[in-house]
């Protein structure tokens, strides 16, 4: 099927856009980064000529993750019209979490992930960028809609060095959840084959044809050897008592 809207930029709420413009199994790759609990205003793409942010856009975004009438309507739509296993999952979540900002976020995400699953090709992949605030809930939604067998990986993105938080571990990472629509998904390798020079210089070939490498697992970077043999000190050996 030819996608009539190839190379087209849509601006607005992706839920009605997907329902109106995107046919089944028409998308190869999806990446989404829905903000939550960030205390920032996103999605302000256009500005007035005065340079001020468009007030209507900001107001619409600020109301996105609150339990409003829209969230209640979306929830009831999922209960009545979503597949039974999705309806059961979102109902159980509401009973457990309650009606609050988190639940509003999860309801909106469930509706959208259902549509994203519909428009994704059988060979397609989806990456969702989130933070530890909601990643555990999102995995439940993903497993319900995409199936647990189609979970491929949880990619950890370190976005900062350690924070000096006085009473807790620093929040220094986000999560990218990687799901596919089927086992027959397109995969672009993220690396190239090792060169023969590298294999011959650092690895040993076993009788089976596979390669192995011997090194000290307690000191993989050889920093102890560098200190002992003086490689950090002009090559002069250092004697240790």
Report on the structure:
This protein is an alpha+beta fold. The chain is 36% helix and 15% strand. The chain folds into 2 domains: 14-180, no CATH class; 196-229, no CATH class. It has 8 helices and 6 strands. It has a 4-stranded mixed sheet with strand order 1-2-4-3. Strands 5-6 form a two-stranded antiparallel sheet. A hairpin with a 5-residue loop joins strand 5 (204-205) and strand 6 (211-212). Helix 1 runs parallel beside helix 5 (101-119), helix 4 (84-97) packs antiparallel against helix 5 (101-119) and helix 4 (84-97) runs antiparallel to helix 6 (135-145). The relative contact order is 0.11. Mean pLDDT is 80; it is low at 41-49 and 229-241.
Global mean pLDDT: 80
Which strand order does the major sheet show? Answer: 1-2-4-3
Number of domains: 2
Approximate shape: globular
**Element-level helix/strand string:** HEHHHHEHEEHEEH
The termini sit apart by: 75 Å
DSSP E strands, number: 6
Which labels suit this protein?
241 residues, disordered C terminus, 2 domains, alpha+beta, four-stranded mixed β-sheet, single chain, two-stranded antiparallel ribbon
Short characterization:
This protein is an alpha+beta fold and 241 residues long.
Please write out the topology.
Layout: H1 14-21, E1 27-32, H2 55-62, H3 69-81, H4 84-97, H5 101-119, E2 120-130, H6 135-145, E3 151-158, E4 173-180, H7 196-202, E5 204-205, E6 211-212, H8 223-229
Parallel strand pairs: 1-2
Antiparallel strand pairs: 2-4, 3-4, 5-6
Helix pairs in contact: 1-5, 3-4, 3-5, 4-5, 4-6, 5-6
């Amino acid at each position: 099927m030819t996608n009539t809207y190839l190379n087209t930029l849509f601006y607005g709420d992706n839920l009605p856009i997907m329902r109106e413009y995107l046919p089944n199994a028409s998308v190869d790759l999806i990446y989404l980064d829905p903000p939550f609990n960030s205390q920032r205003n996103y999605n302000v793409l256009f500005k007035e000529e005065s340079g001020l942010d468009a007030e209507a856009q900001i107001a619409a975004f600020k109301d996105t993750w609150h339990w409003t009438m829209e969230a209640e309507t979306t929830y009831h739509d999922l209960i009545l019209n979503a597949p039974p296993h999705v309806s059961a999952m979102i109902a159980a979540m509401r009973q457990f979490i309650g009606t609050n900002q988190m639940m509003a976020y999860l309801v909106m995400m469930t509706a959208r992930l259902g549509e994203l699953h519909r428009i994704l090709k059988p060979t397609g992949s989806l990456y969702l960028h989130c933070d530890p605030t909601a990643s555990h809930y999102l995995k439940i939604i993903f497993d319900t809609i995409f199936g647990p067998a189609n979970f491929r990986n949880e990619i950890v993105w370190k976005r900062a060095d350690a924070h000096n938080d006085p009473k807790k571990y620093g929040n220094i990472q986000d999560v990218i959840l990687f799901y596919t629509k089927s086992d027959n998904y397109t995969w672009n390798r993220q690396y190239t084959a090792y060169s023969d020079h590298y294999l011959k210089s650092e690895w040993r070939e076993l009788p089976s044809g596979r390669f192995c490498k011997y090194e000290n697992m307690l000191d993989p970077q050889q920093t102890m050897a560098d200190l002992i043999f003086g490689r950090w000190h002009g090559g002069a050996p250092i004697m240790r008592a």
